[in-house]
């Protein structure tokens, strides 16, 4: 066990619950640390159900193309915890991370604190100590009581599309979940809102109006669309003709447009050239990522494709299914899904968008995750939904079985935890 893992294991034991949404514990800890959350560069706070990470990835790429130093906070990580904290453009170094974690551990003095709370406090400490031009801050879950929601006056707020997810914590309807996400709105901060279903939009609109915020809305105040293979973006300031996003999928045109709108509405120093260079340079691992090398890829035949995506809910699955249909129009190929899911997800809902597409489904129990669905259960649910499904003992076994399908397009999906395990086993971790 590495030193980082040993520290994180100790911190995980401070609170009996993995998730306990509240600001009552984090605020006293931050005060004892010297209130680092009050000494940050301008903050752009991002909440939503899907596309938070992609939106931040685009914004970071735009700002860095414009020569700016950018902090970023994302979760969860895929392979190494360091992936969560990017300081002025670089992932935090292990020695510095360990020192900060141990400092926060000492100051906390064994008080009950969830893993996300104490690690977020560590991130704020590192962000405050390191000079940067902007901080891109992703919520962990929800908004109102999310641990990141301690920044009193962000430069701007982004709400990505809201859908059903984490209902046990955030609410059972899109409207209830939207109430929670809207909790990151702050009076005096600008807001940009992605494509929303009617119920979510109504909630967000009411919440913004109560605070005197006039947000701009995707699909109304700004638009982004694919045209002849390029991204055409338009808002009241004019039209931009840009290269396509570096991330794959029709939904990425929407995500990129949301980030462009935020950059323009928040008056970030990004011009058309920086937008173009950022769109080409953007990277966000395990989002329709092709695995073209590595020991796992070697298990498939030369005519096969291997893809990885961390989809974990029905909304994300629908976007990936659309991307696969687009790929199939270019090169038809039998689709094989290799899927593992956490037990907070309904297998039938995640699989539904792939009906009529997947030739076979191989299911996995996510390694090292006690709260994962068993492979046999996912396979049973898949068969009930009409899929040809079999449980497998490992990713290796599933890929060997997929290799029996000539020239297959193989997608490993269902959880970012599974995606991280795959990247580690394939020896292709994120940089």
TrEMBL record:
Domain (Mur ligase central) ranges: 46-263
Domain (Mur ligase C-terminal): residue spans on this chain: 306-415
Pathway participation: Cofactor biosynthesis; tetrahydrofolylpolyglutamate biosynthesis; Cofactor biosynthesis; tetrahydrofolate biosynthesis; 7,8-dihydrofolate from 2-amino-4-hydroxy-6-hydroxymethyl-7,8-dihydropteridine diphosphate and 4-aminobenzoate: step 2/2
Catalytic reaction equation(s): 10-formyltetrahydrofolyl-(gamma-L-Glu)(n) + L-glutamate + ATP = 10-formyltetrahydrofolyl-(gamma-L-Glu)(n+1) + ADP + phosphate + H(+); (6R)-5,10-methylenetetrahydrofolyl-(gamma-L-Glu)(n) + L-glutamate + ATP = (6R)-5,10-methylenetetrahydrofolyl-(gamma-L-Glu)(n+1) + ADP + phosphate + H(+); (6S)-5,6,7,8-tetrahydrofolyl-(gamma-L-Glu)(n) + L-glutamate + ATP = (6S)-5,6,7,8-tetrahydrofolyl-(gamma-L-Glu)(n+1) + ADP + phosphate + H(+); 7,8-dihydropteroate + L-glutamate + ATP = 7,8-dihydrofolate + ADP + phosphate + H(+)
Entry-linked Gene3D superfamilies: Mur ligase, C-terminal domain, Mur-like, catalytic domain
Protein EC: 6.3.2.12, 6.3.2.17
Keywords: ATP-binding, Folate biosynthesis, Ligase, Magnesium, Metal-binding, Nucleotide-binding
GO molecular-function terms, A-Z: ATP binding; dihydrofolate synthase activity; metal ion binding; tetrahydrofolylpolyglutamate synthase activity
GO biological process: folic acid biosynthetic process; tetrahydrofolate biosynthetic process
Function per UniProt: Functions in two distinct reactions of the de novo folate biosynthetic pathway. Catalyzes the addition of a glutamate residue to dihydropteroate (7,8-dihydropteroate or H2Pte) to form dihydrofolate (7,8-dihydrofolate monoglutamate or H2Pte-Glu). Also catalyzes successive additions of L-glutamate to tetrahydrofolate or 10-formyltetrahydrofolate or 5,10-methylenetetrahydrofolate, leading to folylpolyglutamate derivatives.
Protein name from the UniProt record: Dihydrofolate synthase/folylpolyglutamate synthase
Lineage: Bacteria, Pseudomonadati, Pseudomonadota, Alphaproteobacteria, Hyphomicrobiales
